[in-house]
Amino acid sequence: MSAADDSATRSPRVLWYINPTDGEVPWEPTQRVAPTFEVIREQARTLDRLGYYGALTTAREAISLVGDTERLRFLIPEYPGVKPPVLLAEEAQVFDQYSDGRLIYNQVNGADPVLHRYGRFASKQERYRMSAEFWTQVKKLYLDDDSAFDGEFFSYGPRYKPPIPGPRQPGGIEVWGTGASPEGIDHAAEVLDVYLSFMSEPSALAALFDRVRAAAAGRGRTLTFGVLASVIVRETDDEAWERFESQLSRTRPETVLATADRNLRSFGFPGLDEIGSDDPLVQGRIDALRAGRLPGREFLEFAPNMAAGLTTWTAAEPPFDIAGKGTGTYFVGSPENVANAMSAVADQAGVDIWILSGWPLAAEAEITAELLLPLLQQPSTARAPRPPSADPHGRDHSVVV
Prior knowledge:
This protein has 401 residues and is of the alpha/beta class. Helices cover 39% and strands 14% of the residues. It has 14 helices and 13 strands.
């Protein structure tokens, strides 16, 4: 049985987001709620009550939410090397001491402008080499290795004080992350426990995961695979698309255009005035933005119940997936149709973990838990099949499995 086939026999682990940037249309600054501590406490309590496996958070707030939750795991981003390995391992031990072992690290290689702010100026290739040494040592230190170390990037002396009380997670702290370049895939195969990707075109996603699987197998390792996407699920497809388009209608074009060019260039892409695409849908989005308007659904919907949209990280990422990073991909539709679309992707690419989002975060987590999550536990043959979607341009949007 292949990894993709095996994924279809298991229920996926589903995580959500916790973030103080929230509201009905939170990428629009005028429509955000005040970012108070109570906002994220309510998000955490809601996810824990609803039975989500975990939540992706910022690095700042997670330990403060442990007391509001009992089972929810916290996936916390870390830039390797910004903190010394010993310090991060001690922080992980303290977190697990208070949470009873609910910490996961999200390894973030980072864009150059972000890392320059944190005083890290190495090239991407050197950062991956440094990251491999960093996480190898963090994992050993978390499991109470007390010896000195003198490596290429990090050095430290022997432990001189009593260990922090347990528990320790069996096998050590898990590290999740990504990286699609040749260096990033090699790094993932060496370091990561779970490989993550934003949701992209399904066949491209499957091809990426297959490359990572092969690289890990070459090292005698097996990884788990997860996908990040947003979701709008309602009783019917029409209701879900109405919500999707309503959020766009309340977004000012100038909000998106204010950062679009900068964000493209920060990731090494041509600017908005230069970038182009062979995909007519993507080119339609680019043309709309150049004309000072937001693209419509006819350019955003790229497969049945899948569309490129806006998220709270639009301020830092190219909007509407015009650079092919998948950061704004949504599943949109009825519970049965969204479940079928997600299951088709999971079967094709071998996905075991979903990190989902929708805004407002707590409210959409409630809707998703009620309507969608029970269906993800069922085989696709137990759900009503989705009728073919009419495309105004006559394109075939079928997902190949």
